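Saturday, quiet lab. Running sequence design on the C-alpha cells for the scaffold JK sent over.
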C-alpha cells in the first residue's frame, strides 16, 4: 500500500476551493516566501496526483485524497488492514472518538432489535479479524461493552451461540480451526434475497411499548383460532414494530 488511508468523501475541486477561501478569509498573501497562488497550485497538484498500487497495477485516485503518509497499513471505515510481510492482516478498527455505547437493554425497543446487536457484532468480529487472537480480543471488548449497556450475560451468550448455530459451526473456535470456520461463515452469510409475494402477505405495524411485548404471540394465536378454516388463512400476516416517539426523532430530520 502506498498510503496509510484513502479518504473518498471530499470532492477534489471543493477541497481546493476551501483552501483558497481559508487563505482569503485570513487575508494570507504569503507563507514564508511562498505566495498564496503557489500554495493553491501545489495543493491542487498533490490532491489530483494520488496513485496507489494494487495487484501489480497502478490506479489514479479521482475522488478524495490520501491521508497521512506512506506505510503498510490503512484504516477503511471500521476495518484495519495491514500488509504484514506479505500476509494480509485485518481486524476491527475503532476510531479514537469511539465510545462504548449501543442501544441500552432497558430502552423501549422490541427485543429482536436488541438480539441483533450482539449477533451482528460477533459476526463482524469473525469476518474482520484474520487471526484467532484478535478475534478473542474483539469478542471480549464486545462483551464488556454490552455488559456496560445493561445486557444480561446469559442474553449475550445466547446470541453468540446463535451465530454458531445458524452458520453450522459445530466445533468451538480455536487456533487450529479458526481460518476454515471463518471462511465458512463468510461464504454462508451471503444470503439470497427471497422475493415477497405481496398478494399473499399482509404487513401489520404497531408502535412498540413494554405492554405490547406479548402482542405478536397473542395475535398469531387468535389468527389461527378464527381463520384456520377460512380462505383468508392463505394470507400470511407479518407483524412489524415502529419505535415510540423520542427526542432523536424530534431533533433529526432524515433526508
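Result came back. Writing it out in full:
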Amino acid at each position: 500500500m502506498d498510503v496509510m488511508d484513502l479518504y473518498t468523501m471530499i470532492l477534489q475541486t471543493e477541497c481546493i476551493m476551501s483552501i483558497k477561501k481559508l487563505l482569503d478569509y485570513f487575508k494570507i498573501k504569503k507563507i514564508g516566501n511562498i505566495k498564496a497562488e503557489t500554495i493553491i497550485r501545489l495543493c491542487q497538484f498533490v490532491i489530483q496526483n494520488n496513485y496507489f498500487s494494487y495487484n501489480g497495477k497502478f490506479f489514479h485516485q479521482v475522488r478524495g485524497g490520501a491521508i497521512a503518509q506512506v506505510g503498510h497499513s490503512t484504516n477503511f471505515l471500521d476495518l484495519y488492514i495491514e500488509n504484514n510481510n506479505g500476509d494480509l492482516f485485518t481486524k476491527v478498527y475503532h476510531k479514537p472518538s469511539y465510545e462504548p455505547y449501543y442501544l441500552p437493554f432497558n430502552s423501549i425497543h422490541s427485543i429482536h432489535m436488541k438480539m441483533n446487536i450482539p449477533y451482528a457484532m460477533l459476526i463482524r468480529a469473525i469476518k474482520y479479524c484474520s487471526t484467532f487472537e484478535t478475534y478473542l480480543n474483539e469478542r471480549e471488548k464486545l462483551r464488556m461493552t454490552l455488559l456496560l449497556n445493561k445486557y444480561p450475560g446469559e442474553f449475550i451468550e445466547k446470541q453468540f451461540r446463535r451465530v454458531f448455530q445458524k452458520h453450522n459451526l459445530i466445533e468451538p473456535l480455536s487456533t487450529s480451526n479458526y481460518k476454515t470456520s471463518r471462511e465458512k461463515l463468510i461464504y454462508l452469510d451471503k444470503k439470497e434475497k427471497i422475493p415477497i409475494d405481496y398478494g399473499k402477505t399482509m404487513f401489520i405495524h404497531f408502535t412498540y411499548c413494554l405492554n405490547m411485548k406479548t402482542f405478536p404471540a397473542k395475535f398469531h394465536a387468535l389468527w389461527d383460532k378464527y381463520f384456520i378454516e377460512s380462505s383468508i388463512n392463505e394470507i400470511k400476516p407479518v407483524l412489524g414494530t415502529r419505535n415510540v416517539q423520542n427526542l432523536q426523532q424530534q431533533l433529526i430530520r432524515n433526508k
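Notes for JK: The longest strand covers residues 201-207. The first helix runs from residue 12 to 25. Ask whether to fix the surface positions before the next round.
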